[in-house]
Every structure is written in structure tokens, then in C-alpha cells.
Amino acid sequence: MCYRLSMSEAENQYVKILETVRAKKGKLDACSPFPSEPLARLEAWYDVELTYTSNAIEGNTLTRSETAIVLEKGLTVRGKPLKDHQEAVDHLAALHFVRELAKQDRPIKEIDIRDIHRLVVSTTLRDEAGAYSKFERRILGSEVELPGPAQLPALMEDFGNWVAENTPSPETAFAAHLRLVSIHPFSDGNGRTSRLLMNLMLMKSGYPPLVIRPEDRAEYFETLEKYQLAGDASDYQVFVATRLDKALDDFLKFLTPALEADPPKKPEGPSGP
Questions:
Q1: How far apart, in whole angstroms, are the C-alpha atoms of residue 190 and residue 3?
Q2: Half-sphere exposure of 103 (CA within 13 A, CB side)
Q3: Residue 117 region, left (φ>0) first, then alpha (ψ -120 to 50), else beta?
Q4: pLDDT single digits (tens) 19-56
Q5: CB of 184 within 8 A of CB of 146?
Q6: Residues with catalytic annotation?
């Protein structure tokens, strides 16, 4: 039997996890600036990890090591579909675009979301890349009813305004992912685009991106469906907050040896008289 938290239990757990997350974020901030070489290695790890996991959740058959071969060597893997290779290359391009957006001192706009999607499906869904679907969509195996095509422009304009007006934070990043994947505006690539938007908002607020593993797929989809059918986001919030907490642990663990060898230089205080 699968144990379920009540809404109040989940809400309390969510608050406690966010407190832990903010404490770890304080430790991360105290370590800044980070040494450039280990930071570059960590970004290269995220290139593979985020691409592999996000694509695998959607049914891509490349393993983690095969994804690394495709991205780092530009090679194809015998016996694997061409589409799976294209999805890996496209996701990497979208991730690099997201990193550049995270560095820009401006709000995220609706066009940015469309551009992320355009890159996510640039070779697998070329004719519909960056465009809202003109057809009815369904989520396989789910009773969730999605907005009709005629509703999408207004829903996305409202969502884009909400994203632009809200300061990036873990809470707004989680909410943005949940809202976008529930609008489901594109013919394909909604999950990948939503996860990239969430990680964009996390990176803009100084957090590392979070990873949702393919082995967590069932739980992840269940928490989304619980919100989409019943309006209860509490399990989803605990799910993503727990993964952000893990991301902070991984980030600090990876960088700690480099920081111990080369601690950040603190700015000097004002000289005395």
C-alpha cells in the first residue's frame, strides 16, 4: 500500500524542507565566488545529467553513458533511434540557452519560453517548434483535460506576465513548472520545456538546477496529476523541494574539495586612518 501524506502534513513538510534549502543556500553564498575550473566540470556534468534524465522521463532510450557519448563525442549509438540522438543534442542546446538567460538581468518573458521549446524540439518537431498547438492534446494514461487550442494564446500571455512579474525563487520556480506543464501549450516537449523553465528560475535566484530522475517518474507524474485533477499541489511541492535539497547537497559536495584547496578571497575592509 502506498502511503500518502495529508495536505497539512505535506504543507508542513514543504515548509521545513524550504527552511533547510535556504540554510544550505546560505552556505553556498558564503563560498562564492567559486573556482572556475571545478565549476566548468560541474556544468559539464549537468549537461549530461539534465539531458539524460529529462529525456528519459519522456521515453528516450539513451542511457546516461550513451547520452554522454552523443553529447561529448558527437557519435551515434548503434541500435538506438535517430530521434533519441536528436533529442539529446536539442536538449543540450536548450540548456545552454537557459544558462545564458539566467545570466541576464531582466525578467523572463513569454517569448523566452517559446524559444526554449523551439530549441527542445528544433530537429524532431521542426514545423511546430516554439508554436502553440493548434490541436487538442491528451496526456496518455490520464483523465486530465487540457485547455483547448483556442484558449492557449490568452493562457500563455497571462502566464508569461505572471513569470515576468514574479521574482525568481524556489517557490516561483516550482509554481512556474506546475502551471506550464498543466497548460500543456505545445504539441510535444511540454515536460522538457517546463523543467528547463523551472531550472532557469532556480539558476536566476542563485540555486543549482534540480534533477528529476527517470526512476522517480511515476511519483513525479502522480504529484502533477493530483494537482491537475484535484487542485492539490502539496505532494508536488514536497517532491520538487526534496530534489532541490538534494541538488544543493550535490553542489556543495562537488565544490567543497576545490574550495578547501583554494578558498574564495573575501573583499578587504576599509583601511584604517
A1: 29
A2: 5
A3: alpha
A4: 999 999 999 998 888 888 989 999 999 999 999 999 99
A5: yes
A6: 184
Domains along the chain?
34-129+144-258 (1.10.3290.10)
Q: What is the dihedral of CA 47, 194, 168, 98, to 10 degrees?
A: 40
Contact between 121 and 90 under an 8 Å Cβ cutoff? The reply is yes
116: Cβ–Cβ under 8 A, 6 or more apart, which residues? 94, 97, 98, 193, 196, 197, 200
| Residue type at 31 in one-letter notation | C
pLDDT higher than threshold 50 for residue 3: no
Per DSSP, 207 falls in state P
Buried residues in 215-252 as b, exposed as e (16+ CB within 10 A): ebeeebeebbbbbbeeeebbbbbbbbbbbbbebbebbe
Kindly tell me if the per-residue pLDDT of 270 is higher than 60.
no
Q: Give all strands (DSSP E) within 94-169, no chain letters.
A: none
